Amino acid sequence: MTPKIAIIGAGASGIFSAIQLAPLKIPIYLFDKNKIIGKKLLATGNGHCNIHNQSLSPSCYQSSSFSPKEIHTILKNFDFNAFKRFCEKIGLFLEIKENGKAYPISSSAKSVLEIFMPLLESVTLKLEEEILSISQTADAYCLQSPKDTYTFTHVILACGSEAMPKLGGSDKGLKLVKSLNLEILPTYPSLVPLKINSPKLQNLSGIKLKANITLMEANKSIYQTYDDLLFTSYGISGFGILDASSYLYQAKNPKILLDLLPTFSAKSLENIFLNLIKSYPNKNATEILSGLLHPKLALHLVKNLKLQLTNTKTIKQTLYELKNLTLDSPSLYGFDSAEVSGGGVSAREINTTSFECQKFKNLYIIGEMLDIVGNRGGYNLAFAWASAWNCAKAIQSTLKA
Q1: Which of 16, 162, 163, 210 could disulfide-pair with 338, CB 3.0 to 4.6 Å?
Q2: pTM
Q3: What are the residues whose beta carbons fall under 8 Å from the beta carbon of 235, sequence distance 6 or more?
Q4: Number of domains forming the structure of the chain
Q5: Which domain CATH number covers 199?
Q6: Which H helix or E strand runs over 178?
Q7: Range of 297's domain?
Q8: Residue 255, Cβ density class (10 Å: 0-12 exposed, 13-18 middle, ≥19 buried)
């Protein structure tokens, strides 16, 4: 049968694999249930498109089935510099911001799609067409949609995940995989706010600060960061919390430990408070703490934790609470608020070099469908580009052999 490729899913990895395969000049079909391609990509980085990260490392990813060595090899084969060269070749220029985050100089996700679209001219776009089933024949795959039945020699599954259902995220891609009896590890929302039911957080919604955030499991730190913390009506959010959420799923009896005054040592704060109560003996604890914390937060903590600043003993007790505020039983918010999904197709089901299924020749799985999730900051898109590139190169090699 003449080679013919189907790519199911027109998100980042699906689009990029189509671009890489287009020079083969064989029939390539790109399917998506949405009206437009790259719908989720358009929302990345609040529309500014945090497209990659200059500092890639396996430590920035979590997976139950991919080894650090496998992740390293995948990313090394198509690293940031390779992606940057590709972008510059097609007229898309990048700039590096804090923590190695890469953005298009235009600061617009729309410009990324504008540059990508001409590279898909030879690709047949089948939008608003969802693939409902996949089955294998002697030398090909049969795909069924509500509109038609198709036959392809090669199929790439790039269906994304359940995250961001308003932008088209769903588990239907994993259901296709499940019909093939492949191992799927339990999925969970990631890069997501945390729900916490605690009187310590009542009436603090909207208050934002920089804090040291530590995720604890059985009194052991499993993740720590210094970043934004946002109190919400349901718990906590902010960049630091989103990153911590990726490590929460498998934690047993987790706790969040907050240092609300991370730029001060306990000793320096003790001296500050001793000097203030000596100089201003009529000031209460709320008034003193309001010089360091949001007044609403200071009032709430003093009232609910019964904080005092009257002598060395009460100062030390207050300092302990401010630098070790403990929030019990955090849980993940739902897929509606998640940027990505953890879990997915096990790495044991694919060749981690080519992304071809071990059990099905010429069937490939890439991107967010797989059991790997990266930290916030362009790491998930970096894996999407790399998995698509590795997959496309493997198909090219097969067809040229």
Answers
A1: 163
A2: 0.92
A3: 193, 194, 195, 196, 197, 201, 330, 333
A4: 3
A5: 2.40.30
A6: helix 172-178
A7: 266-322
A8: middle
